[in-house]
């Protein structure tokens, strides 16, 4: 189920403005651009999240979100619905994740299946979307790496005397770029080895890249869950307080009484163990689904079960290694 279509912050305002002004899109987004604008939009969001000196500062965050919203509101009004499908990076990522939903439509009827079945049933995605799938995984992975003692040691910093985010802006940008380039290169090399091993001659490397790139989405989603799970447990409490008292006037619109933010679940070994197991479970499940999904895609598009099996050996090894990498990230000490 695509929940994004129900919470998309542009759909309502665009419909209202078009109805009141009788406005129709005046420009056409060139097909030659593909999904490049969306890729740039997503990378801009990730850059702000990882490299900005204070991305969680309320005023700074509000300005960034307002600028992003206004930019894509204007783009949608000028270029129509295609802008949201090809240029708005966050929405594009949400639509990709929606393909992992167990509920969907198949042959114009409602259907239910294992997570990712909709990806297995579809044709290859365009190159821009394929690249975006890898960037989501690569950026999410570096989001975890850049906080570890290992990474801080690589850029010459004492993790116990972290000087602040302003001191590592360029190192963070370089690490983000390097991580994504390395992941795309390794993934492409893995696919090439799989095609050679399975002797798949009727599928090019470019086509295989567009076919199998969406199969890493379960891994990326598992990382997002694991990385932000503990933050969610705390920030959700602040969101609840804001919802019941949005103007900080002592109101209680939701009738919740006094709500206090607690981080008590970090105080005991048993509760931390439960949290860690939940995070590790998210990572492992994401990888299991990704391996199964990649094999289903190979069987559907390569025709021969033997060719599909042999071609997936390098990719399966890649995903297993990434599992260990993800669990290492969860267990690694953090510098800030």
What is the percentage of strand-forming residues? under 5%
Radius of gyration: 22 Å
Structural class computed from helices and strand pairing: mainly alpha
Give the rounded overall mean pLDDT: 88
Total number of helical segments? 15
What are the secondary-structure elements, in order, as H or E? Answer: HHHHHHEEHHHHHHHHH
* Helical coverage, percent range: 55-70%
**In terms of per-residue confidence, which ranges show pLDDT below 50 for 5 or more consecutive residues?**
none
- How many DSSP-defined strands? 2
Strand order of the largest sheet: 1-2
**Apparent shape:** globular
Question: Could you give the topology of this structure?
Answer:
Blueprint: H1 4-7, H2 11-21, H3 36-51, H4 58-79, H5 81-86, H6 89-98, E1 103-106, E2 109-112, H7 117-121, H8 127-145, H9 149-154, H10 169-197, H11 205-212, H12 217-244, H13 269-302, H14 305-311, H15 313-331
Antiparallel strand pairs: 1-2
Helix pairs in contact: 3-6, 3-8, 8-10, 8-11, 8-12, 10-11, 10-15, 12-13, 13-14, 13-15
Report on the structure:
This protein has helices spanning 4-7, 11-21, 36-51, 58-79, 81-86, 89-98, 117-121, 127-145, 149-154, 169-197, 205-212, 217-244, 269-302, 305-311, 313-331; strands at residues 103-106, 109-112. The chain has 336 residues and is mainly alpha-helical. It folds into two domains: 1-98, no CATH class; 114-336, no CATH class. It has a two-stranded antiparallel sheet with strand order 1-2. Helix 8 (127-145) packs across helix 11 (205-212). The protein starts with a helix and ends in a 5-residue tail after the last helix. The relative contact order is 0.11. The mean pLDDT is 88.
């Amino acid at each position: 189920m695509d929940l994004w279509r129900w919470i998309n912050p542009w759909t309502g305002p665009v419909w209202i403005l078009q109805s009141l002004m009788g406005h129709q899109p005046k420009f056409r987004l060139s097909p030659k651009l593909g999904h490049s604008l969306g890729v740039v939009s997503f990378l801009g969001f990730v850059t702000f999240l990882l490299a900005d000196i204070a991305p969680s500062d309320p005023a700074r965050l509000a300005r960034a979100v307002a600028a992003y919203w206004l930019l894509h509101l204007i783009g949608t009004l000028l270029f129509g619905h295609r802008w949201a499908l090809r240029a708005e990076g966050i929405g594009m990522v949400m639509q990709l994740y929606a393909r992992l939903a167990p509920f969907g439509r198949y042959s114009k009827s409602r259907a239910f299946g294992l997570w990712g079945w909709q990806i297995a049933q579809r044709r290859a995605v365009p190159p821009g979307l394929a690249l975006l799938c890898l960037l989501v995984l690569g950026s999410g992975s570096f989001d975890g790496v850049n906080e570890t003692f290992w990474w801080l040691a690589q850029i010459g910093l004492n993790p116990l005397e972290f000087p602040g985010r302003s001191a590592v802006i360029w190192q963070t940008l370089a690490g983000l770029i390097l991580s994504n380039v390395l992941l795309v290169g390794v993934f492409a090399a893995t696919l090439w080895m799989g095609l050679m091993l399975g002797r798949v001659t009727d599928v090019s490397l470019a086509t295989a890249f567009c076919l199998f790139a969406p199969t890493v989405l379960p891994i990326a989603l598992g990382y997002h869950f694991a990385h932000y799970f503990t933050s969610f447990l705390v920030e959700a409490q602040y969101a609840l307080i804001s919802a019941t008292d949005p103007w900080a006037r002592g109101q209680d619109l939701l009738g919740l009484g006094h709500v206090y933010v607690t981080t008590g679940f970090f105080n005991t070994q048993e509760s931390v163990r439960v949290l860690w197991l939940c995070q590790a479970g998210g990572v492992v499940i994401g990888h299991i689904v990704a391996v199964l999904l990649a094999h289903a895609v190979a069987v559907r598009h390569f025709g021969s079960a033997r060719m599909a099996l042999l071609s997936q050996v390098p990719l399966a090894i890649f995903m297993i290694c990434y599992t260990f990498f993800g669990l290492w990230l969860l267990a690694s000490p953090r510098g800030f």
